[in-house]
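Case study 2.
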Amino acid sequence: MALRYAFVLICLTGAASGGVYAQVVSGDTLKHYELGEIVVGAGHSASARPAVSTMQRMPLSAIAQMDGASIDGVLSALPAAHVQTNSRGESHVYLRNAGERQVAIFFDGALLNVPWDNRADLSLIPSDVVGEITVAKGVPSVLYGANVLGGALNLTSRTLESQGTYTRVAGSVGSLGAYSGNLAHLGRRMRFGYTFSAGYTGRDAIAVPGGAKLPFGQPAGSRRTNTDRELESLFGQITYRLGVRGQLGLSVLRLDGASGIAPEGHIDPQIGHVRYWRYAARTTGMVILSGQSLVGRGESLVRGVVWKSGFDQTIDQYESAMYRQRLKQQRDDDDTYGTRLTFLHPTARGALSLALNGFTTRHQKVEVDMNAEDSAITPLVFRQHVWSGGFEYVWDATDQLDLALGLSLDGQATPETGDKPDHSPQTTWGITSGLAYDVNEVYGLRAALGRKVRFPTMRELFGEALGRFLVNPDLRAESAALVEVAVGMVGEDVQAEAIAFLNRTFDTIDQRVVQGPDHLPRRMRVNLDGSRVAGFEIVTAARFWRGFRVNANVTWMHAFARLRRQRVVAARRKATVLGSLRPSLQ
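Prediction:
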């Protein structure tokens, strides 16, 4: 019923269709994309019991109701999720106060993060191509692979479940020259399904926040300097069902854009190193091949995703906030190949899952001095391999109790380091453990405990950002002990869960200001002594009367970090409260 009203809501924005009308669903036809969501229980298949760690979903109906042009405008409705735009105009998601590089983001099963910096700009992902969002928090499954210390986010593309076709055309116009347009066409015929989407968005500027103190580089007026933007998007997908035993899918995504970056108007350029940048070009491309198949007598299941992704960007550095004379240009070219494979096998009293994840990425950087004559351009090449192998076993101890244990071995190596010193390969271990207990038909308990690690990115190890950073060759990996305990209830008209969590992170990677060789301030990435984040989530969904539903959540968090500076211990504390309320029709 909820999906039916979501379909009506989307059509009201302006849609035309050919053939037979059908429901648009969030991706049930391609569940093999959700590799990290496998929970095997008493039925030796997808268990009806909750996972031992937190798994939360946002279906298509909720995504459509948020009506965001890009996916960053949607994620704020997720419990314990905070979306923030950084000083470069990039939008990142923080789960339970974890750093943006600690959260892995997947699109149709493939890693969306750019490995050079292990981040993804969510403002570049159109919400029209996403049919479902799934978030894993607490102690993420070993099936997600490496670098998921802060959680994992799955974006599943929109597909058509029933036979027929569906076409949607939408557009919007806003203040400060904002505009957007999108065309989506979906279809299914017999065993074949397809999706096509094209969009274009842009703006002239963003507004200057009220009370902003920007004495440098910001003229009088309501428009923030150098914050224009444009983005083109194309997405296509073909799926084929292999009868009842499996299916195949091929997805292609391409994003092209350019944008300005607001100057650091709080810094005096006479005494500080001020950034006057523009993204002259930014291009993302992905090709994803995925599949699943029953094997043997049909009891075991093999799932896999193979992908190739590319990310290119050109950064222009200007002399001043007038943005007329270019001083330097940096060109980045990233190519990544990756795979995720899982094998699921039922046993007499549970189920076993095996996982192998890995990718290899190549980053090429070219820096050009626009004022130098006949300067030789020598590309710097960096390469990194990241891999993870592990298993999980879910044991049906009793009809009411499930116990889970998982172990993984993660590793990374950087065989090419440009003009920087070599960096030794690293390997480490991870663990997930937990239990889920059904007290009765209404109430349930679960708890999870684990250890996760995030390796430093190549940018953190070797990046200088046009002279803004000094390299720290002694940078270490982050690790964290993760704990959560939850109690939930499922009634006829009300569902609710209360979750308490504690994340203790060691060697947290941050940055501090140091004096550079030219006696100007530079930034350097360092390891903190550690940080703690404690908090709780309350998530509820209630149906007050027929056809009306309310989803609400609130999260409270307290963060504490310590940093040693020349034998002086500095402490940073922060308390955060997040929440959302979302009524909907069913």
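Confidence is low (pLDDT under 50) at residues 1-49, 564-570.
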